[in-house]
Amino acid sequence: MLNFFGTPGTFTGLALRISQFIFASGSIVLMISSNTSLNFTSFRMLIMSMLFQATWSFCFGALDAYTLVTKRVFHNRRANVIFIVVGDWVTALLSLGAASASAAVMVFYLHDLGGGSAVGRLSGEYELKFQMSIAMAYMSWVTSGISALVMLWILAAT
Amino acid sequence: MLNFFGTPGTFTGLALRISQFIFASGSIVLMISSNTSLNFTSFRMLIMSMLFQATWSFCFGALDAYTLVTKRVFHNRRANVIFIVVGDWVTALLSLGAASASAAVMVFYLHDLGGGSAVGRLSGEYELKFQMSIAMAYMSWVTSGISALVMLWILAAT
To answer: Which tens digit of pLDDT belongs to each residue from A18-69?
Structure first.
């Protein structure tokens, strides 16, 4: 059995899942703190994507915790590993896409349009909250990308 | 020596590089066909990112062609493989980020703003060209992502 940084069923693996979940949830909470966000197509997509990320990370974080307690190993079967690899890659790429999309719209709105448009003018407070939400989405992508790389490595090396 | 689909120095590897180069170049040409694109921060970023992608793919496409002709192998040294893996991953993620960013701004512009803003109104012709450019950027990401996965697989398996 492989056992290095980030492997499922280890403390680092669990820590990765927990940070993914925290960043994704934080991103959602900051984003839905204003109704205005729903006027932006990309922000709606970010909320969906972060919801998927949070659910996925919560499930596999719970599985990691279960593994740590019971010492049962579930990633020694190739089929399980393939399932986690595919899921991790889909969530990681979705998170990157949604975070980039939201960041781009935020830049377009604040910089190119000069902070006002037909969609509605954001107050300074929400501009800040949305930017923090996007930053958290990027953090959730980074942690999720690490998990995806580790899982692919395990798949290739077994 | 590993030799499967997409390995550098094989015909499929060369075909991947050529399609990356064609898609990235096509994306740039379509994007710079209108000066208006430079008003959009994300479109400028897409041009930069596609320029990087086209250069990278051209260099390694040329190296693949050279390998095919001379039968010399350059990916049997771990240091070379690590260099290509890192470069491939950076270009692939940049392409995905830039393509998502541009697509998001395009949707924001056309859908959320209803196709007109302080940045300037696009004519129907350019709306179509920009969308085609973004589609080609996504295609270049897909082909570049395949290269990146293949290279990581080679790194993990050797």
So the answer is: 999 999 999 999 988 877 777 788 888 899 999 999 999 999 999 888 888 8
Distance CA A115, CA A121 (A): 7
Interface touch B108/A41, C-beta < 8 Å: yes
Separation between Cα atoms, residue A129 and residue A99, nearest integer Å: 14
Q: CB of B26 within 8 A of CB of B84?
A: no
Query: With contacts defined as CB-CB under 8 Å, which chain A residues touch B104?
Result: 41-42, 45, 100-102, 104-105
Identify the CA nearest to B150 among candidates B67, B66, B60.
Answer: B60
Residue B48: partners with Cβ closer than 8 Å, 6 or more residues away:
B98
Structure tokens at B114: 């209803």
A113–B114: do the CB atoms touch at under 8 Å?
A: no
Q: Which residues of B touch A112 (CB under 8 A)?
A: 39-41, 118-119
* Contact of A147 with A23, CB cutoff 8 Å: no
Q: Please state, in angstroms and rounded to a whole number, the distance separating the CA atoms of residues A3 and A79.
A: 18
Residue A53 CA to chain centroid, in angstroms? 5
Q: From the first residue on, what is the mean pLDDT of each consecutive set of 10 residues in chain B (158 residues)?
A: 71 91 93 78 89 93 88 75 89 92 86 64 76 92 91 80
Choose from A45, A100, A154 for mutation: most chain B CBs within 10 A: A100
Q: Collapsing DSSP states into helix, strand and coil, what is residue A34?
A: coil
DSSP label at residue A28: H
Terminal C-alpha separation, chain A: 9
- Burial degree of B80 (CB within 10 A; 0-12, 13-18, 19+): middle
Question: 0.95 cut: is pTM over it?
Answer: no
